[in-house]
TrEMBL record:
One of its GO terms (biological process) is methylation. The keyword Transferase applies. Its EC number is 2.1.1.354. It comes from Burhinus bistriatus. This is [histone H3]-lysine(4) N-trimethyltransferase. It is an enzyme of class 2 (transferase). Residues 1-69 form the SET domain. InterPro entries: H3K4_H4K5_MeTrfase (IPR050869), SET_dom (IPR001214), SET_dom_sf (IPR046341), TPR-like_helical_dom_sf (IPR011990).
Length: 257
């Protein structure tokens, strides 16, 4: 039981290139890092290799921090998760200010609570039929919520992400781009500066724009992804290499037009 608790409190969630969870691992030296909801470092993976990347200027003597949890939650929810899994209460600047909580829960409460329940109930589909069911549920809720919940509501944003994922898996590229484009404003709001999740989302939308022959828009989106990813992932990361390849293809097409 003590070993189980040590793993629970010290493990890292291993993610793939698109920041999707694929497993957990123990990295003893990285377990020494403390938490902040507004950290100065992020962790990205290259396979099973853990990379610690700074995302802003760090002063001499300043502590290196990472976020132990997904930050796209209201302060009260973040505090509950940190207390439940790590047994401490966060006192970072983001938790003291709570300045974005109102935007995260904007809209009519009874409506976004229905979306929240749907998001929490969602399980990763394993077949085309299951993806079709997920998409139908997302489409129904997004249609009925039109005008009642802004896209900045975090549960609406997660629903848009879910709809985008379903469309990609079902190869509905145009509809995937529609949902993905709606997420970019909220992502910019909640992941300002350099954040790997925003970089990956920009890359996904840029690839969809490229597939729709929207080359000027795709190039602009991919450039934004590149400017963030060179900080969060570094130029040697395999995802960065893939981004540079599609960006160069887009630039080549633009030159010939």
């Amino acid at each position: 039981f003590p070993l189980f608790l040590q793993v629970t409190c010290n493990c890292f969630t291993i993610s793939n290139g698109e920041m999707q969870d694929v497993g957990v691992g123990l990295y003893p030296s990285m377990s020494l890092l403390n938490h902040s909801c507004d950290p100065n470092c992020v962790i990205v993976f290259e396979g099973y290799q853990l990379l610690l990347r700074s995302v802003r200027e760090i002063q001499i003597g300043e502590e290196l921090t990472i976020s132990y949890i997904e930050s796209l939650m209201p302060t009260s929810e973040r505090q509950k998760q940190l207390m439940r899994q790590y047994c401490f209460e966060c006192d970072c600047s983001l938790c003291r200010n709570q300045e974005k909580d109102a935007e995260k829960l904007a809209g009519e409460e009874h409506t976004w609570k229905e979306v929240k329940d749907a998001v929490n109930e969602a399980r990763y589909p394993k077949s085309k039929e299951e993806w079709e069911q997920v998409l139908a549920r997302c489409q129904s809720l997004l249609r009925s919520n039109m005008g009642y919940i802004p896209d900045t509501n975090i549960y609406q944003l997660k629903m848009l992400d879910c709809a985008m994922d379903a469309c990609i898996n079902l190869e509905f590229w145009e509809e995937a781009l529609y949902y993905g484009s709606r997420t970019l404003g909220p992502y910019r709001l909640y992941y300002p500066g350099f954040h790997p999740l925003r970089a990956v989302q920009l890359m996904r939308v840029g690839k969809l724009q490229y597939s729709q022959d929207m080359f000027p828009q795709a190039l602009e989106t991919l450039k934004q992804a590149y400017n963030i990813m060179k900080v969060t992932h570094g130029t040697d990361h395999s995802l960065m290499q893939a981004l540079m390849e599609i960006k160069e293809q887009c630039e080549a097409i633009m030159r010939t037009q």
